[in-house]
Amino acid sequence: MKLLRSKTPAEDPVALPEVSDTVTVAARGAGWIPARVLEAGPDALLVAITVRAPEFSREQLETLKVEFSSARGRVRLRGTLTSQDAASPELIKLTSPRSVEVLQEREYVRIKSARPVVVYSVRDRMQIESYTVDVSGGGLLIAGPDTLKVGDRLDFQLTLTPGVTPVTGSGRVVRVDANGRRAIEFESISDLDRRRLVRFLFECQRSELRRGLEGDDRG
Prior knowledge:
By secondary structure, the protein is α+β, with helices and mostly antiparallel strands.
């Protein structure tokens, strides 16, 4: 999923996240921090940071954003910070939330394909071996693991064909589905590796079409 800036919010209003939705909170110099919506209304959002809560500076609070996934792409919200209680620093409340950016997802062919993938968490450089559930030119859906959280950045090595140099790059966990699978959005991948990946997707589609036609002939 490659991100492209879309229309301004005034031209195309967007929905807000719902209660229990996973979001990420970002402030200048603090990176992307996983959080969850506790309360949601037309005029306010209350989110809880799900890792050890940082102590934001005044400048960071002024630049704080909330990002979440909608049906149309990734949405970034700003608002007026009305509370960060010293007793509960993990709670962030925004009033008058508004969209400052809508990042639409460019459509890529996506296929179901189980391929070995090794990811390295940027946070602790832990090596994790897994496999893909589906693959596209813009990202991967992988089976677990539960050590990866929304917002985590990682490097990956994706083996398309045994014995052939893996496709490599970096990405970010943008979603965890109901089955615990992690959706990884590419942030950096070479043009050569993206072409290799797109060619692989095309060949998979062509093979599937060929099998379908052969099945029709036999029928």
